[in-house]
Amino acid sequence: MSAPIPPVLDEADADAIIELFNIGMGQPAAALSEMIGEEVLLSVPALTVSTRQRIAAEVGLQSVCAVRETFTGPFAGEAMLIFPEAGGLALVRRLIPGEGDTAGADEQDALSEIGNIILNGCLASFSNLIDGEVSGSVPDYRAGPPGQLIGGAEEPVLFVRIDVALAAGDASGYVLFLLDLASLDSFREAVRRALEGLGG
Length: 200
Known about the structure:
Elements: H1 11-36, E1 40-42, E2 46-51, H2 52-59, E3 64-72, E4 77-84, H3 85-92, H4 105-130, E5 135-136, E6 140-144, H5 146-150, E7 156-166, E8 172-180, H6 184-197
Antiparallel strand pairs: 1-7, 2-7, 3-4, 3-5, 3-6, 4-8, 7-8
Helix pairs in contact: 1-4, 1-6, 3-4
């Protein structure tokens, strides 16, 4: 039986967190757009409290490629860039032209670098915004079913999902942030201070 999902955020907190992610993702998306020569489109962040089991089910794909890293600082958790395999290859082909339909070592390295730009770029933005260091681990490339990569634990996590796509429409995926609920109070306070500093 799944663990209950506690109502841990009020509307003001949720809006503040969404605003912080909007700000944090802007520069990395622009950097990736410049790198591949094509506009990178981002959705408004979706925020909920969920479980890894439910998140994997929501991704709803048989097989994905993912770049993952953990982060620590005033708050801790895990960040992921996830694409269906075909979408990940379409993105990589902007950098490495090729005809294959599977990801070899070069393609995996390229996708890891793209993940590094997006995930570490966002974490670096957070560090600047909250005036405190948020450190990410070395990005780790993996491929397989979503449940294997995201996990099947039923403990609640704060879950932020941002849809990411290329303007051409042939590559779309997700940026996922899973925040340990034990870090929620410090994260919420950091977000409030950051937005107060921006005059929000």
